[in-house]
Design brief:
Strand content of chain A: under 5%
Pfam families (chains A, B): polyprenyl_synt
Radius of gyration of chain A: 18 Å
Keywords (chains A, B): Isoprene biosynthesis, Magnesium, Metal-binding, Transferase
CATH class of chain A: Mainly Alpha
Shape of chain A: globular
Number of helices of chain A: 14
Organism (chains A, B): Thiobacillus denitrificans (strain ATCC 25259 / T1)
CATH superfamily of chain A: Farnesyl Diphosphate Synthase
GO molecular function (chains A, B): metal ion binding; prenyltransferase activity
Number of strands of chain A: 2
Strand order of the largest sheet of chain A: 1-2
Cofactor (chains A, B): Mg(2+)
Distance between the termini of chain A: 22 Å
Largest interface: A-B, 56 and 56 residues
Structural class of chain A: mainly alpha
Number of domains of chain A: 1
Oligomer: homodimer
CATH topology of chain A: Farnesyl Diphosphate Synthase
């Protein structure tokens, strides 16, 4: 029998897929090829970890899923745009993503560039839709939070640091600084944006913020372990590319065994942060397990 | 003696330069190279036509320049990001912009990609700053307006249509459809966002919207004439590249003489739309002249 958690994740994934399919422009209106490529980039793939975190955080603050789903879609679109640009020849030059040819391979490079650009715009369009939070001023703060998590002091900045580090030896502090930007900022935004759709107290914000920071790092540690150990077929994207690109990773710094332990420590820290929130944080706890125990 | 209009444009240009310099992250904080490249892409160049339109539209609705300047900066950052991505090898592959090497030439391609991405995020960060409009709900609508003007049914969509049209013969209707998206959407956003910082009545919105659509097209007609006639040195960007790229333009469709006449007709239409607004629309009228009479 399917566990309650599995049923919940599947329901969330179906919901976010539906919202994304509705909010992405249809591929029969102009510019058709761009719209087709945007839908190709976003729909039908991925674990939707960021939307799951947003829904779980919304549970803590009593947010309505009908509102959280738009915040979740906005974050997922930012994530999707970053993958499209990241895979381009000027960056990682990768041909495979989520088991399918990457956008610049399936379409072409100019289209991939515009797909990423337009997905970012669409994320802010959706996050600014009327009525996502109880007050318009809260929602403006949500827009600013996502913009900062995406920009040069968030995700895009993390990618710049990553590029600058290729072939360099980093210590753990420098590696974590990179990941806090590259992956962590958007994971944190997922949690906080989901929570902001409900009634978020200051102590709850502090707890969720700490949880999100730990989960963001744990997510990256696990990703590094997966990249080092899994096959391309299982992963749905090119495996072993960090080592091939001579990129520093948790595995290259700590070894696989110690990296796994680090992921478990981060999970424990994340869950400890949730203690004051009681049973409303159940899905967030389950997601912490899910992130760390991803099978491969 | 400097004309009153020249003094006004110079004051607006100095103001927007100051706001952009303040809101762009300093190049001495990490990631330094990305921040340096963002500042390189944005500061010290361009006529700032979009900010000028925002300030002029703010005059109509009694908006405070201290508020309009942030909306103006947001639009200018979207424009700047589009130039950086447009110049990349995957798109127009251009080496010169505003008389300087383009970002991917001065820095590198991955940096140019991230600069564009991060400038777009920064635009929404700034537009969501507290207190730009009288009501937070108005400001949310402003965020959505800019997102739509930038995205696949606005500027990015126009670029996709432009790419799809290379080497094709278009009629005037198809050419205008492309430009309404590629340039027109952001010009329209400049005018409406500036106006939304004040008190915008429905009749004024309709008038400004019509003005903006005419000016957006006029701007593009003049750009095509400039591209066909000016030298690279005068233009500060590669001249004659539309013809070299076999791109349809107003000049290729209408010839230079008829294209100039079309620009004058559009200016007349734009100014007629402003009639109900009286003297408060003076700067918008002067900008219509400025756009059409750019010297070359």
């Amino acid at each position: 029998m399917m566990s309650d958690f599995s049923a919940w994740t599947q329901a969330c994934q179906a919901r976010i897929e539906h919202v994304l399919a509705e909010r992405l422009p249809p591929s029969d209106i102009a510019p058709k090829r761009l719209h087709e490529a945007m839908r190709y980039a976003v729909l039908g793939g991925g674990k939707r970890v960021r939307p799951l975190l947003a829904f779980a955080a919304g549970d803590v603050t009593g947010a309505a899923v009908e509102q959280v789903q738009h915040a979740a879609a906005a974050v997922e679109l930012i994530h999707a745009y970053s993958l499209v640009h990241d895979d381009m020849p000027a960056m990682d030059d990768d041909a495979l993503r989520r088991g399918k040819p990457t956008v610049h391979v399936e379409f072409d490079e100019p289209t991939a560039l515009l797909v990423g650009d337009a997905l970012q715009s669409l994320a802010f369009d959706i996050l600014a839709s009327p009525g996502l939070a109880q007050a318009a001023s809260t929602q403006l703060a949500m827009v600013q939070l996502l913009a900062r998590a995406s920009g040069s002091r968030g995700m895009a900045g993390g990618q710049a640091i990553d590029l600058a580090n290729v072939g360099k030896s980093l210590d753990l502090t420098e590696l974590e600084f990179m990941h806090i930007h590259k992956t962590g900022a958007l994971i944190r935004a997922s949690v906080l944006l989901g929570a902001e759709c409900g009634t978020l107290s200051e102590p709850a914000r502090t707890a969720l913020d700490h949880y999100a920071k730990c989960i963001g790092l744990a997510f990256q540690v696990v990703d590094d372990v997966l990249d080092a150990e899994a096959s391309t077929a299982t992963l749905g994207k090119t495996a072993g590319k960090d080592a091939a690109n001579n990129k520093p990773t948790y595995v290259s710094l700590l070894g696989v065994q110690r990296a796994r332990e680090r992921a478990l420590e981060l999970r424990a820290d994340a869950c400890a942060a949730l203690d004051p929130l009681g049973p409303s944080a159940r899905r967030l706890r389950e997601l912490a397990d899910f992130v760390v125990e991803r099978t491969f």
